[in-house]
Specification:
The chain folds into two domains: about 80 residues, no CATH class; about 130 residues, no CATH class. It is globular. The strands form two sheets. It has a two-stranded antiparallel ribbon with strand order 1-2. Strands 3-4 form a two-stranded antiparallel ribbon. It is built from eight helices and four strands, in the order βααβαααααββα. It has about 220 residues and is mainly alpha-helical.
């Protein structure tokens, strides 16, 4: 049975999709992912699975889909192994970056630019300030984020904690993975999505504030 896993879905949401589609027991997909984590000695499951279209066996949809998404990610990693960033980052760190990029934009043309900003901030030990990682932790992708969630010292609170969150936060697309391994050459440290539906980059906070004034 054909199944499309959209980019930026979390493992929990993929699990819910399978429950709805195949009347599967809730939690089966997340358990299948945990089995892969243990079998291959992965650091985490969220972010190790590639979004896309898959042909799933209806008898064992959870195990089958988890394995196919993992195998697809291995193939995608192999296509990007020429990246010079592999001297600075582990593959798992780059997959976390890919999932952050995916959560920040669904537009493939913006991904390498957002990747550049993430890499530039990591290079100078500046917090990433990506609220999507907090949204992942609290499991709410739509409501305003409670102020208290942005003030905690949680490892997923990238406003306060420097560096990457401890796991990925969603299933990235092939384009997001490529962008993580091959960021654009730009020195910007900020970006925002404007009301004009464009992305606006800035190197300094003053430039970013001007972008906020003009485009928010």
């Amino acid at each position: 049975s054909a199944l499309t896993v959209s980019p930026a879905l979390t493992n929990a949401r993929i699990d819910a999709l399978l429950v709805q589609r195949f009347k599967m027991e809730p939690g089966s997909f997340e358990r299948a992912v945990n089995d892969l984590v243990h079998a291959y000695g992965l650091g985490f499951g969220e972010g190790w699975l590639l979004s896309g279209s898959y042909e799933v066996h209806t008898a064992t949809p959870a195990v089958d889909l988890a394995r196919q998404m993992y195998d697809a990610m291995i193939g995608e990693i192999q296509r990007n192994l020429g990246s010079p960033l592999l001297s600075l980052y582990s593959i798992e760190e780059l997959l976390i970056i890919a999932s952050l990029i995916q959560a920040e934009t669904q537009n493939p043309t913006e991904m390498a630019g957002i990747s550049a900003v993430i890499h530039n901030r990591l290079a100078i030990d500046e917090p990433l300030g990506i609220d999507a990682s907090t949204r992942y932790e609290i499991g709410d992708w739509h409501s305003p984020i409670p102020t208290i969630a942005l003030e905690t010292q949680s490892p997923y609170n990238t406003r306060r904690k420097k560096g990457l969150p401890p796991t990925g936060i969603c299933a990235p697309s092939p384009e997001a993975v490529k962008a993580a391994f091959y960021p654009e050459a730009r020195d910007d440290l900020f970006y925002l999505h404007g009301v004009d539906k464009q992305i606006h980059y800035a190197h300094t906070y003053d430039e970013h504030r001007e972008n906020i004034r003009r485009y928010r």
